[in-house]
Write a structure and sequence with these properties.
- By secondary structure, the protein is of the alpha/beta class.
- It has eleven helices and 34 strands.
- α10 links the parallel β21 and β22.
- α6 crosses α7 and α10 packs parallel to α11.
- The structure holds alpha-L-arabinofuranose.
- Alpha-L-arabinofuranose binds next to loops.
Length: 629
């Protein structure tokens, strides 16, 4: 470190200052000295887990629309009227989408019949205009009716008649849009109806049905605005994708394959994701990059490195095609349109290269038997990427020295993950105080995942969120070397959760977005960032109160966490400041915002300094940020 983090007050304190601190903690923020703070410290880690992508931040509302994954069956579909539904493989839509929905209509059937899709455990109907797309095959000339219907009430919240002229020879694509009436909850289905008498004794085929509400930034195939806007509010700096374990898969064939996630949806085969459900890959590489573009996030691209979750490891010459795939992917992202993959990106609608400066080699290669071969595999990727793209920061997926090349390679970063109890996070407060400053660190995943007694947690709670804040204060104090950090996992569909706890939860109910206490810690820390960490003198050691100070221009930011059951008074002296705002998040030790009850939210108030000193009362189990000028 360039300077001692805490200087305990000595007898140099003036008597008046001593009197001020008798009942509390006194902090004095230095005017200068201190280390630089990473401009991209806070950001997001994303993979499709807990239906965070399909059924989550990706706005498309109909489920199993391309019959992808290992065993899609008729999941989410149901008949409407006298019809039989089957999954058909004799009429592939494309080489990628090989199954479709066959709707068979018995002879003599009349009236409106068809099928429904229940979406991702319901469909939010918001009163906005929805867009609908589908492919159809089979002889039918007439009206198709598209509807959104309440399951319990039978209320029709949208109905649109569309004239179609479908033939048995070819698939025909249809798209339309229609207004909706807001439904009180998410217990709704989408249905497609047609005139049975025109089809009786025969069948129609449907594929890639898609239903979109308005999307974030009006992007086609875009993001769900409520969730996207919650991320915008955090003002994060980077997005790590596409995993996590979901990058790896359970075999090389099951890995996330970048060029299967681009282009028209009918050319994306999807895959069985690592988290028990199929991924449509409609949220694909280009969509991730547009997400970054729309939120001003630095992309942190994870590439498959030969290790899969079954413990399979690819090394030596057999690894070369995978290294080439990573190079091709990087070229797709940032190559000029004169390169083969840059031209592909242009064809996909984005001729302008994206800025890509961070690539991570694999995920958690200290696990699943990856450690011993990682020095070789990491070095092979590094030697291929670094000469071609010297400005790319290449990140190793572990900090475990026994899994890393020795000596460490020039400029390499290291990713470290922590899923711990609150006490363990607090004990890790000084984890980075004495590390080698030559190799930047990315804390790519962290979260409190168990209570101090070792019990699982369903959703972040106050003690855990305060503990994360203590750890984050440690990260920020060391943000000359810890350059990025992200809570994980980010999102959770309450109806399909593979990992708890998560930062943000939701279901199909339009009002279900639930921001956890840890979300608010991320938000208030990320929203209040200086560019230089300032030394702080204190009359007390760290614990139960922890702090870090930073400055940007003339604005000072003091972050505090009280990891204790008593309130604490803290006097903070910052030369030259007179007024400010203080934002405090606090609650009972085990209080949580789950489910649907966002009762614990940050409270902001204005504060003034008295003779240059702000006096803050930190409630028990609290996180606070003082922003002072
Ligand atoms: O965040 C959930 C999982 O935890 C990630 O996929 C993996 O990297 C880690 O083990």
């Amino acid at each position: 470190m360039a300077f001692p983090k805490t200087l305990v007050f000595s007898g140099l304190l003036a008597l008046s200052q001593l009197l001020q601190v008798v009942d509390g903690i006194s902090l004095s923020v230095s005017k200068d000295g201190g280390n630089a703070s990473s401009p991209i410290l806070y950001g997001f880690m994303f993979e499709d887990i807990n239906h965070s992508g399909d059924g989550g931040i990706h706005a498309q509302l109909l489920r199993n629309n391309g019959f992808q994954g290992d065993n899609p069956g008729l999941t989410a579909y149901g008949p409407v009227g006298n019809v039989y539904l089957t999954v058909d493989t004799d009429n592939p839509l494309s080489t990628a989408i090989t199954s479709s929905l066959k709707v068979s209509v018995p002879s003599g059937t009349t009236g409106k019949v068809g099928f429904l899709n229940e979406g991702y455990w319901g469909i939010p109907v918001t009163g906005d205009t929805y867009s609908n797309y589908f492919w159809m095959k089979g002889d039918y000339k007439g009206t198709v009716t598209l509807q959104l219907v309440g399951v319990s009430s039978g209320t029709v919240y949208a109905s649109k008649d569309l004239e179609v002229a479908s033939t048995a020879d070819n698939w025909t694509y249809y798209e339309t849009s229609y207004g909706t009436t807001a439904a009180p909850d998410g217990n709704n289905v989408w249905q497609l109806l047609f005139d049975a008498s025109e089809v009786a004794g025969s069948a129609l085929y449907f594929d890639l049905v898609q239903l979109f509400p308005p999307t974030f930034h009006d992007r086609p195939n875009g993001l769900r605005p409520t969730i996207a806007n919650a991320l915008v509010d955090v003002q994060g700096s980077f997005l790590r994708f596409p995993g996590g374990n979901n990058l790896e898969g359970y075999s090389p064939a099951d890995r996330w394959i970048w060029n299967n996630t681009i282009g028209p949806l009918e050319s994306r085969p999807g895959r069985q994701g690592a988290w028990t459900y199929p991924n449509t890959d409609a949220l694909g590489l280009l969509e991730y990059l547009l997400w970054c573009e729309d939120m001003n996030l630095v992309p942190v691209l994870g590439v498959f490195d030969g290790l899969d979750l079954s413990g399979g490891v690819i090394t030596g010459p057999e690894l070369e095609p995978y290294i080439q795939q990573a190079l091709d992917e990087i070229e797709y992202v940032r190559g000029s349109i004169d390169t083969p993959n840059g031209a592909l990106r242009a064809k996909d609608g984005h001729p302008e290269p994206f800025k890509l400066t961070h690539v991570e080699i694999g995920n958690e290669d200290d696990l699943w038997g990856g450690c011993s071969s990682y020095p070789e595999r990491f070095t092979a990727f590094y030697n291929a990427i670094h000469p071609a793209y010297p400005d790319i920061n290449i990140i190793a997926s572990t900090r475990n020295d026994s899994c890393l090349p020795s000596p460490r390679l020039d400029g390499m970063w290291m990713d470290q993950h922590h899923y711990l109890s609150p006490d363990e996070f607090v004990a890790s407060f000084d984890e980075f105080d004495h590390v080698d400053r030559n190799h930047p660190i990315f804390v790519g995943e962290y979260a409190v995942t168990s209570t101090n007694n070792g019990a699982d947690m369903s959703f972040p709670n106050i003690i855990g969120s305060v503990a994360e804040a203590v750890y984050m204060i440690g990260l920020e104090r060391n943000s000359d070397v810890v350059l990025m950090a992200a809570y994980a996992p980010l999102l959770q569909h309450f109806n399909s959760t593979q990992w708890i706890p998560d930062l943000i939860g939701y279901d199909s109910d339009p009002g279900s977005l639930t921001l956890s206490t840890s979300y608010y810690v991320q938000k208030i820390f990320s929203n209040n960032r200086g560019d230089t960490i300032l030394p702080v003198k204190s009359d007390s050691d760290f614990g139960p109160v922890y702090w870090v100070a930073s400055v940007r221009d003339t604005t000072h930011f003091i972050k505090l966490a009280n990891y204790g059951s008593s309130s604490q008074t803290v006097d903070i002296t910052i030369d030259g400041t007179t007024t400010g705002t203080v934002t405090i998040l606090s609650g009972a030790e085990n209080e949580s915002n789950y489910p649907y009850e966002a009762n614990v939210v940050p409270v902001e108030s204005t504060v003034s300094a008295s003779k240059g000193t702000f006096t803050l009362k930190l409630p028990a189990w609290s996180v606070a940020v003082l922003k002072a000028n």
